[in-house]
Design brief:
The structure holds three protein chains of three kinds.
Chain A (H helix, E strand, L loop, with lengths): L6 E12 L2 E12 L3 E5 L6 H9 L6 E6 L2 E2 L5 H7 L1 E3 L12 H9 L4 H6 L6 H8 L4 H4 L8 H14 L4 E5 L7 H16 L3 E5 L3 H4 L5 E6 L2 E6 L1 H6 L1 H9 L2
Parallel strand pairs in A: 3-8, 3-9, 6-7, 7-8
Antiparallel strand pairs in A: 1-2, 1-4, 4-5, 9-10
Chain B lengths: L3 H20 L2 H27 L6 H19 L3 H23 L4 H21 L2 H4 L5 E2 L8 H23 L2 H11 L1 H6 L4 H27 L1 E2 L7 H14 L5 H17 L7 H16 L3 H13 L11
Antiparallel strand pairs in B: 1-2
Chain C lengths: L1 H28 L6 H18 L4 H27 L3 H23 L13 E4 L2 E4 H23 L1 H11 L1 H6 L4 H26 L8 H14 L4 H22 L4 H15 L11
Antiparallel strand pairs in C: 1-2
Helix pairs in contact in C: 1-5, 1-8, 1-9, 1-10, 2-3, 2-8, 2-9, 3-4, 3-8, 5-6, 5-8, 6-8, 9-10, 9-11, 10-11
Classes of the chains: A alpha/beta, B mainly alpha, C mainly alpha.
């Protein structure tokens, strides 16, 4: 392909403590533009906390975050989202009293009170987004509590796409899904990958993750213990120990 | 979105309310003036609490700031009303930012308690700090009124209700209304949608404060007096809160409906229960309606209308 | 100086007693009972009716007040709170409405005229220019006994340990076979009884009026908020902080200012350390 490799999003030496618990212990991780990175590791390794620091929902005790080479360590979440970092949640967080369509519309909103009042919402883009994740008119009018887990994850994806992101942070995208739903969601992600999107995907479902990612990073106890291509990483004895050690 | 039907509703509301003084006694008109003020306060409460979910237990604090500002300006300095009322509203906006401060870090129960503390603090401060200026425990009386007589006051206050209600309705039916509702449901997810939660809260709090300020300032110039007791008071707070909740929070029509309903409930109970029992029944009704249908009368009427008109049944109507 | 010390201690003891039931309900059920002040008021009126209207002995009057408070606690929980438990804000709003209804009911039964209560323990303690009523000293001693008993109850008895378990980890407690609703019911009963007991002394300290519930509610809120919502020890410490601050302000600064500092304390603590000075602890 000959694409110029440049780092899009990066954490450098990030430490984050919750009371006595060290969630991130000098974590350094990066994703290149156009790359799909798999982030794996046993429960409690700090993957979700890493996402929190990347989006600004959690403030690190030390270390820095960079986006396009700019220091974003202290940038608030909504501004990072506006600049192109979007995430999904392990447990989907839709706006419960809104329809699927309205959920996506909130994600499309401009961050300006004046524009929210004065401008009409763009026509058609909302439904187009829903169609891109496989939702028709019927689903658009449904409420989140009527959706299956697979549909909720698709809604989360549609909401992140609505913010026009450059990089997607997807937390446990395959958790709680049926084989069929995994296949559907994978197809959507493959399409995003082809269109040049960047992503970091956290998943415990290694078999589903493997075909989607260019590279994996393995975390344990808040730090990187291995990284590289999928096959070689899984052969790494450290990784085996981290995974088997918890069983 | 079709505008015609709701606008027709607003028009009908205005026509009916303008005709009311022709058909009812002056006593009833006087009661309606209070209902109008209650409607303004309840609408204001709803912008903060109904929409964004930041429950304010201190709304009398905001109302009182405007009231005291304009009362002190006119009483001591003979400031003309066209200057003192805007000054009161401005002071309330400043007070509203005091509410925003805790809202940056806490919500739910804790936020409600801070606002309650603000109200209590104000109650004590107005009595203690510079009683010569505030009138202390007895307050200030002999404050100039804007118009006199029940009917002029009725039209003045209904004009306020109508203008504020329509204004809020026009603003909150845009995407800002949905954004505030989203804030109530999940603040983190709003930030993750790329929206500044602080800016949204600031907007809601300032709008609410402005409405509370307008209501408070005109209220004082209607009563002609102001005193800490009865104003910075849990019972006053209760009336505002119940009007909004009973009518239907997170709507514009709800708080107005609730205010009229509450006021008239109290009045129509009078012939049957002349004594203080009235307040027990009135409170019980409020409690029962709230426990059975927390979305209020507005939702009850909507459900009723939906049952009557099967055509509407399939649509879920967004407030 | 001795005066401040003794009066401060006495007032603080009373405040701790006022706040403790409020703390328990939050700790176990994660809801605030804004009708807490009404529980106190009911205790006061029940005692008044028993002792000053029907001439029953003081001891029996206190027992009646405590039972009335406990019964009202149970009633409030089963009729109102249980339906709304999943929504703390709804509980707060509905208990606030309940408080206003009860206030109106008191006016109906007892009129709005204030009633004076005879001191439960008459007489005044005098020593080298120190004046403290025996009544408030009794309240202080009683609050120590009650709070001490409560700590023992929570730590040593089966029911107490179950309550503690629910307050620490509701789900975990359910898994180990504790019924959280029964625990909540017990808490509301205990809280109601303690509040009524506090109410008897609070009413003799001030007056019986239908609006008297606001002041103790504010005190309970202040103690619990500043102490860290749900912590008994934190509440105890802060009851003393507030009690002494009020006493010092009253004697050395100006009597009218005593409530101001309490409110400022509440606001500052909630804004700067929302978890309270002592953080959140189990019972």
């Amino acid at each position: 392909m000959g694409r110029a490799v440049n780092t899009l999003l990066e954490l450098r030496e990030v430490t984050k403590r919750f009371g006595g618990l060290v969630a991130l212990d000098g974590l350094s991780v990066h994703v290149d533009s156009g790359e799909f990175l798999g982030l794996i590791g046993p429960n409690g390794a700090g993957k979700t906390t890493a996402f929190g620091v990347l989006t600004g929902e959690q403030r690190p005790d030390s270390g820095r975050g960079y986006f396009h080479g700019d220091d974003v360590t202290r940038m608030p979440t909504h501004r990072r989202v506006a600049r192109g970092i979007a995430r999904t949640y392990q447990i989907p967080r839709p706006f419960g009293e809104m329809t699927v369509l309205d959920n996506v519309r909130v994600a499309m909103m401009p961050d300006s009170v004046r524009r929210l009042i004065a401008e009409r919402p763009p026509e058609g883009v909302d439904r187009e987004l829903l169609r891109s994740v496989g939702f028709g008119e019927r689903e658009a009018a449904m409420y989140p509590d009527q959706l299956s887990m697979g549909e909720l994850r698709k809604l989360e994806l549609a909401r992140t796409l609505a913010t026009e992101p450059e990089v997607l942070l997807l937390d446990e995208v395959f958790a709680g899904l049926t084989r069929g739903e995994i296949a559907q969601l994978s197809a959507l992600l493959v399409a995003e990958r082809r269109s040049g999107m960047t992503a970091i995907i956290v998943s415990h479902d290694l078999r589903s993750l493997a075909p989607l990612v260019d590279r994996v990073v393995v975390m344990s106890f808040g730090a990187v213990i291995a990284e590289g291509a999928f096959e070689e990483v899984l052969d790494n004895p450290l990784v085996r120990e981290a995974y088997l050690g918890q069983a | 979105m079709p505008l015609a039907r709701p606008l027709l509703g607003w028009l009908a509301f205005a026509v009916v309310m303008c005709l009311v003084p022709v058909f009812v006694s002056t006593g009833t008109v006087r009661i309606l003036v209070f209902a109008n003020f209650l409607a303004i306060f309840a609408m204001s409460w709803d912008v903060i609490s109904g929409r964004t979910g930041y429950i304010s237990f201190g709304h009398p604090f905001l109302i009182g700031i405007a009231g005291y500002t304009t009362a002190m300006l006119t009483y001591h300095l003979d400031t003309p009303l066209w200057l003192s009322i805007p000054a009161g509203v401005f002071a309330t906006l400043v007070g509203g930012t005091l509410f925003l401060l805790p809202a940056l870090r806490i919500r739910g129960t804790y936020f409600a308690l801070v606002t309650l503390a603000f109200m209590e603090l104000m109650y004590q401060l107005t009595q203690v700090i510079a009683p010569k200026v505030t009138g202390g425990t007895r307050g200030l009386s002999g404050i100039p009124t804007i118009v006199s007589g029940a009917i002029p006051n009725y039209y003045l206050t209904f004009g306020l209700v109508f203008a504020i209600g329509l204004g809020l309705w026009f603003v909150l039916r845009t995407r800002i209304g949905a954004a505030l509702a989203a804030l109530r449901m999940d603040e983190g997810a709003v930030a993750a949608s790329g929206l500044s939660t602080i800016r949204l809260k600031l907007f809601a709090f300032m709008t609410s404060a402005a409405v509370a300020g307008i209501g408070g300032a005109f209220y004082v110039h209607y009563l002609g007096s102001i005193a800490p007791r009865g104003l910075f008071d849990i019972n006053f707070l209760f009336t505002i809160l119940v009007a909004a909740l009973l009518g239907g929070s997170s709507t514009v029509a709800g708080p107005i409906l609730g205010a009229y309903f509450l006021t008239f409930l109290l009045e129509y109970l009078r012939p049957y229960l002349p004594g203080p029992e009235r307040y027990v029944i009135y409170g019980m009704i409020a409690l029962v309606v709230y426990v059975l249908e927390p979305r209020g009368l507005h939702a009850i009427l909507r459900t009723g209308a939906r049952r009557l008109a099967p055509l509407l049944a399939r649509r879920r109507i967004a407030p | 100086m001795t005066n401040i010390l003794i009066q401060g201690l006495a007032l603080s003891g009373l405040y701790a007693l006022v706040a403790v039931g409020f703390t328990m309900i939050f700790s176990v059920g994660r809801v605030l009972n804004l009708a807490h002040g009404v529980f106190l008021m009911l205790g006061g009126y029940a005692y008044y009716t028993a002792v000053q209207v029907f001439g029953i002995s003081k001891g029996a009057g206190i027992a009646i007040a405590v039972l009335a408070g406990a019964a009202f606690g149970i009633l409030t929980y089963t009729v109102l709170v249980r339906r709304l438990e999943h929504n703390p804000i709804a509980v707060e709003i509905s208990t606030l409405i309940l408080a206003v209804v009860m206030q109106a009911l008191i006016v109906v039964v007892y009129t709005s005229a204030p009633k004076s209560m005879w001191p439960i323990v008459p007489g005044v303690f005098r020593h080298e220019g120190v004046f403290v009523s025996h009544n408030i000293l009794a309240a202080m001693v009683l609050s120590w006994i009650v709070l001490g008993g409560l700590v023992v109850f929570v730590r040593r008895t089966r029911l107490g340990r179950a309550l503690r378990a629910v307050s620490m980890d509701r789900k975990g407690a359910v898994i180990s076979g504790i019924d959280p609703h029964r625990m909540s019911l017990a808490t509301w009963a205990i809280s109601g009884g303690l509040a009524a007991l506090a109410g008897v002394f609070f009413a003799t300290y001030t007056q019986l009026t239908p609006g008297m519930w606001v002041a103790p509610l504010i005190i309970a809120v202040a103690v619990v908020v500043v102490g860290g919502i749900g912590s008994i020890v934190g509440s105890l410490v802060v009851a003393h902080l507030i009690g002494f601050m009020e006493t010092v302000t009253t004697t050395l600064v100006a009597a009218e200012l005593r409530g101001v500092f309490t409110m400022v304390l509440v606001i500052v603590v909630l804004v700067i350390v929302p978890k309270g000075l002592f953080g959140r602890e189990e019972l």
